Amino acid sequence: MCMKRLMNLMKNLALGVGLMMTALLSNAAEIWHTSTIRVIYPLADGSFILVFNANSVSCSSASNPHYYYATVGQNGLTAEGSKKMYALATLAFATNKPISFAFDNATPNCYINRLHIGSA
Predict the structure, then answer these.
(1) What is the pTM of this model?
(2) pLDDT tens profile 74-95
(3) How far apart, in whole angstroms, are the C-alpha atoms of residue 66 and residue 74?
(4) 3-class SS at 9?
(5) How many CB atoms lie under 10 A from the CB of residue 114?
(6) Integer Cα distance of 85 and 112 in angstroms
């Protein structure tokens, strides 16, 4: 009898932890931020990192300045979208124009999925 109660308690505990994790992960939000680009850092796998002159307080990146990742398969980014974003980031960097970008604050990688120059 005691072992059965212990097993039920463990199942309920596991279920509760699973529900709490789901609730925590669902708090991720798409955040928009605007800044000029400080660094464009291409990576060997085709993804790239953007570093901006002004950090967003919503990005929990441990680096300072924050790293914002553009990675295919993360936050809905496609290979074609990544190429277009890289071209636009390069233009913004070369002309020192501010760029507005959307990122997901669910992870410290702050994955970017779109950006634009100018007013929307």
Answers:
(1) 0.74
(2) 999 999 999 999 999 999 999 9
(3) 18
(4) helix
(5) 18
(6) 9
Residue indicated by tokens 């901006």:
52
Every domain of the chain and the residues it spans = 30-117
Q: Which residues pair with 31 in a beta bridge?
A: 103
What Rg, from alpha-carbon coordinates, does the chain have? Answer: 20
At 36-67, the pLDDT tens digits run: 999 999 999 999 999 999 999 999 999 999 99
The one-letter amino acid at 18: G
95 Cβ contact partners less than 8 Å away, ≥ 6 residues apart? none
Name the token pair of 113. 């999925």
Q: What amino acid is encoded at 28 in this protein?
A: A
Taking domain 30-117, whether its CATH number is 2.40.50 is answered by yes
